[in-house]
Predict the structure.
Amino acid sequence: MKHPRSIIGTLAATEAFRRPGRRRAIFAVLIAICAVLAIFPERYRAAVTLAPTDPSALGLGGALGQLGAAQSVFGNQTATEVTQTVARSVLVRGFVIDKVDLMRRKGFHDRVDAFRWLDRQVTIRTIRGGMVQMETQLHDPDLARALITAYASITRQQLAIINRQQTSYKRRVLEKLVAEANDRLDRAQAAYDVFRLRTRYSDPRAAIEAIGDRIPALQAAIKAKEVQLSAEEQFATGDNMSVRQIRAELGALQAQLAQQQALNPEQENSVGRVVQESTKGKRLERELLIAQSLYEGYNRYLQGTAVEDMTSSANMRIIEQPFIDTARQFNMVFLLLGFMLALLAFAIEFYNLRPPLEAHVDD
C-alpha cells in the first residue's frame, strides 16, 4: 500500500536530490548565486526626513493670532497626512519626472511607465515624531539623490501653492464681508447722527442721563423750599412778601417736577420722552457698536491673509537633508530566496536522516 508523500519527501525522492553530494552541491550553488545577487549589483539608499509644520510652530503664532490667521488652512487634517497625500500625487510625480529628466535617464518611451516606476521605487512613509521620510533604493546613487531632492522640493512647493490658493479664497470672502460690514457701519453711523441732530444731543447718552437726574434734584429742591416756607410761616403772616416769594418758587418747582414725571412721550423733558429717547438711542448705539466690531474684525482677518501669503512656504522643515545611506544595501528578494533555499536544504537533510514510517513502508 502506497502512502502519499509530503512535499519534502517528494523532493528528497527526486533524481536530482536523491544523492547527498549532488543535492548539497545544487543547494550550495543556488544559495551562493542568491547571496551574490543580494549584494551585487550594489544598491544605494537615498532618503530625506521632513517635519511638516505650520507658521505657528515657527514662532509666528502670536502675530498670526492677533491677525486672525492662526487656523491652519487644512483644518483638522494632520500635517503628515496632507504631506503624504501631496507627495504621492500624480502632479508631484509629473514634476519630478520633468525635473530629473527621468524619461531620458531611464529610457522610458511612455510617461505612464515613468509614473509607475516612481510609484514602485519611491517610498513615502510616516516615522515616529510625526515626521515624513522619503526614500528610494537604486543602482545609480546620483539618480537616487536627485529623485529624493526633487520630491522634497516639489512637495514643499505644492503645499505652498495649496496654502496660497486657500488664502486667496479666504481673502475674496473676507473682502466681500468687509465691504458689507463697511456699508452696515455707514448706515448705522448715519442713523445715529440723524438721531443726534433730531434730539439736539451731541452726546445722547450723557444728555438723557442728565435729564433723568433732574427729577431727584427737583425733589430735593422742593423739600428744601418746604422747610424754608415752614420756618418763615412761624414768624410771618401769609401776606408777607418773603413767604409769598417762597410759595411762588415752590409752585414753580412742583410744576417742573410734574412736567418731568409725565408719562406722555410727546411732552418735552418728560419721563416718557426720556424713556423713549433712551431706548432708541441705546438701540442705535448697539447697532453702531456691532457694525463697527464686525468691520474691525473682518478687516483684521483680511490683514491676516497677507501674513498667510508671506508664510505659505513655511509648511515644512527638512530635518535631514537628502543623503546616500552609508550602510550596505541588500536585494531583499534574493536574500529571502537564499534563506528559503537554506531552509529547504535543511528540511530535506533532516528528512533523510529521520524519514517518517510510511517512507520505509513504501520503500
User: Anything to note?
Assistant: The chain has two domains: 7-171+313-355, 176-309. The mean pLDDT is 80. The longest strand covers residues 44-52. The beta strands are 44-52, 122-127, 131-138, 316-324.
